[in-house]
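Morning F.,

Quick status update on the modeling queue. The single chain you submitted on Monday has been processed. Sequence for confirmation:
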Amino acid sequence: MNEKANLKGADLQRAKLKGADLRKADLQGADLKGADLRRANLQEAKLKGADLRKADLRGAVLWKADLRRANLRGAVLWKADLQEADLQEADLQEAYLQEVHLQEVDLQGSDLRGSHLRGADLRRTNLKGADLRGAGLQGADLQGADLQDIKHSNQPEILERVRQEDGN
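C-alpha cells below.
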C-alpha cells in the first residue's frame, strides 16, 4: 500500500489485511471491526476514533500510532508492539493484550476493564486515570508507570508492587 494511504472513514469491516504495510496511513474514523491485521505494519498510522472492535492485531507493529479514542473492545493484540503509541481515552475493554509491548505508551483515561494484560510490558506507561477494574495484570511489568488516579480493585497492591519494582 501507499506509504501515506488515505483511508479516513473507510468501511473495512472484516478486511483481510494480514501483513499489510499501512505505515503512516490515515485510518481516522475507519470501521475495521473484525479486520485481520495480523503482523500488519501500522507504524505512525492515524487511527484516531477508529473502530477496531474484535480486530485481530496479533504481532502487529503500531509504534507511535495515534489511537486516541479508538474502540479496541475485544481486540486481540497478543505480542503486538505499541511502543510510544497514543491510546488516550481508548476503549480496550476485554482486549487481549498478553505479552504486548506498551513501553512509554499514553493510556491516560483509557478503559481497560476486563482486559488481559498478562506479561505485558507497561514500563514508563502513562496510566493516569485509567480504569483497570477486572484487568488481569499477572506478570505485567509496571516499572516506572504513572498510576495516578487509576481505578482497580487491588489498587493498593498494584501501587505497592510498582514501588518495590522501582526500588522505592
